[in-house]
Amino acid sequence: MNLTLDHIVHFIKDNPSKAVDELQRQGFKAVVGGSHEQWGSYNSLLYLHSSYIEFLAVEEESIAARSNNPLISQLVSDLSDGEGIGQLCFRTDAIEELSKSFQTKGFEPLPIFNGSRKRKDGVTIHWKMLFLKNTGDVPFPFFIQWEQDDECRYAEFKEQGLLDEKLLETKVDSLYFAVENKQVPTEAWAKLFNVAVEIDSNEARIRVGELNIIFKEPSEGNTLVADTLSNRRECPFAVKLHPPLNNGELHLFGSFYC
């Protein structure tokens, strides 16, 4: 069963259009997404090669506070501490089978959510989402199955002018978790994805498709871990892109992309 990184969720406090403005100031084209009316949230999007970054915010506080969607509950909770990258999502074309496979491995999948969002052009798009019950400090990713296949979706993005031509070959190379103990989350994630673990002195990594997922412990002189551990979360993310945006680090709303 193939799993591909679909998107990274970056929680922000302000209107998601502010992320569009900031990225435009940095020389990149992001777009306003739309509203998740049933969850009280809205977003903007920066598309990369086969994945994207979602800037997610609360639009209707009363609706978001009552939502039973785990992502929205995390959004509301985490924003009380500050902005930053909060989650990652993998794409599948067999979400029901995936849920059963996780259960067989001893994980606790939650009931599958039906999702939708009204785009700026008035069109409503649909998807399904799968979450797992978290048992450790590092939140498990969630999983998505889109109504359309990848080829149709990206052809539509291009037709609508949503893509930044400079980013069509930009991929997420690595995702870093800054942790105090690398072994426990690495073993859990390796079991989740059925992959091998590689361990060095202060980091452990797994590879899911073309994506490296790295759990790093603090070490002297390691600025990446030092910076992320000073963030608001116990297990913050950092993202390495290839090629890097602006050939360096891009700081956005409490997190950075390097």
Q: Can you give keywords for this protein?
A:
258 residues, eight-stranded mixed barrel, 7 helices, 15 strands, 34% strand
Question: What share of the residues does DSSP label as strand, in percent?
Answer: 25-35%
* Principal-axes shape call: globular
Low-confidence spans: pLDDT under 50, at least 5 residues? Answer: 228-235
Query: Oligomeric state of the chains?
Result: single chain
Question: What is the spatial order of strands in the main beta sheet?
Answer: 1-4-3-2-6-7-8-5
Protein structure class: alpha+beta
Major β-sheet annotation: 8 strands, mixed, barrel
Mean pLDDT: 88
Q: Work out the radius of gyration.
A: 17 Å
Number of DSSP strand runs: 15
Distance between the ends: 30 Å
DSSP summary: helix tally? 7
Fold and architecture overview:
There is one protein chain. The chain is an alpha+beta fold. It has 7 helices and 15 strands. It has helices at 17-25, 61-66, 70-79, 95-104, 150-159, 183-193, 223-229, and strands spanning 4-11, 31-36, 41-47, 52-58, 84-91, 113-119, 124-130, 142-146, 171-178, 198-199, 203-208, 211-216, 237-242, 250-252, 255-257. An 8-stranded mixed β-barrel has the order 1-4-3-2-6-7-8-5. The chain starts with a strand and ends with a strand. Residues 228-235 have low confidence and may be disordered.
Question: Helices, strands, pairings?
Answer:
Layout: E1 4-11, H1 17-25, E2 31-36, E3 41-47, E4 52-58, H2 61-66, H3 70-79, E5 84-91, H4 95-104, E6 113-119, E7 124-130, E8 142-146, H5 150-159, E9 171-178, H6 183-193, E10 198-199, E11 203-208, E12 211-216, H7 223-229, E13 237-242, E14 250-252, E15 255-257
Parallel strand pairs: 1-4, 5-8, 9-12
Antiparallel strand pairs: 1-5, 2-3, 2-6, 3-4, 6-7, 7-8, 9-13, 10-11, 11-12, 14-15
